[in-house]
Amino acid sequence: MRKLLSAVMILLCIKGHTQQNTNDFFQSIRKQEIKLIAFFNQMPKGGDLHHHFAGSTYAEPMIEKAIREDFYLNKETFAVSKSNPGSAEWVRFSEIINNGQLDAMKIKILQTWSVKDYDPSRYPSDKLFFESFLKFWPLMDNYFVPGLLELKNRALKENLSYIETQLTTPINAPDVSEWYKWDDEIRAASSKQEEEKLNDLFSQLYESILKKGAVERADSFNLFFVKKLHDSLRIDEPGFKMRYQNYVLRFMNPVDLFNHLTIAFLSADRSDLIAGVNIVSPEDGDVSMKDYELHMKMYRFFHRKFPNVKYSMHAGELTLGLVMPEELTWHINAAVRIAGAKRIGHGIDLAHEKNPFELLRYMKKNDVAVEINPESNSFILKIDEKNHPFPLYFNYGVPIVIGSDDAGILRTNLTNQFVILAKRYPFLTYNDFKKFVFNSIDYSFIRNPAVKKEVRTDLENRFKTFEENIKKESALLRN
Ligand SMILES: [Zn+2]
Fold it and tell me: Is the pTM of this model over 0.90?
């Protein structure tokens, strides 16, 4: 027994020693960006828990599809359309090619569908970002096959072993237009804090949606859309897993949004492939702001119905100037305290929230993780090292995971988010980054414990190999 114990002690010492070596090496190169890039490219990065399917696919393959299927292009706005919208500015790609204009058009398309060559003096960054989706959206029809393979291949090349993609809104929700008349009543009950009445309305609506075949619809979505895609593309393999989040759109009116939440939660409850639910679209939009508290109450309702379904929520993706200051004081609080989110996305307005330090303690105590997306915050919200709340989350021990958000539009990848954080925050050590990576599996919504364990064990092995490799290279790379 004593022999065994000392063998374990020696092994632990070696492990600790290799980790210390890697940290020493990391500290020695952290001011040289090019070495940091090489370091983080090689480092296992576990999972990317915050990214959107449509925003993560790059423009180039979408343009190829537009050419292959001879879409129409608007030569002024660079939007595409499958059918002819009928006005003079729309031309077919075949015509563009025949006129020898394709290369010039490609440059313009990339500049409007993504941040390529972005010039802040010419266009607001948030506008460019959100408008880009509308421009390429007609190409997203049937784009899941190439898109998911693109995301998987990129993840493999970046040494990721898991991604949790915000895939789609429910695609076969029932027609609920007959209950639109309840929109005002639901809003009124929420704003007057008539909780009993609100829950009663929710329950009636929920039962009515169930009667329209919600369970069968959720099952058919799970089986004939998600599972079919997942299996036919052979997404999972040893060393790589992908899971999906259903998402709902915050700009929808209450009855429609509730309808989508019903299918999203049912679907997540009934499939191992659907890891959770999210809520997306600009948080500062009119309906998003007006109905924010109501949305949190809807989540609370669904949490009671489906206690096993996990959900992450975009929350506090707001800045001073974007909305009225008092609106910055409560969105994260409401997401974690009313809705009961297990993770929040962005959490940018933290320092403006009511009792921010108490909120941070609450998040730590209740193990609510924050998904940090540095490049997205810089581009869309102009939040960078001076005003990003990252150090607050870090100091208070809130679990942190790092996400890429919309790598296709932002023309970036997950590795670059690590590079940005290492450059920005000198207090972060290699061990901190390693912790963020392990968090990305520990705080993932993978439902099957055996799968989660498999990914975690694989990650431990990858780090062992990485740290040994760094040891070999460090003599040459160190200055
Ligand atoms: Zn996002």
Answer: yes
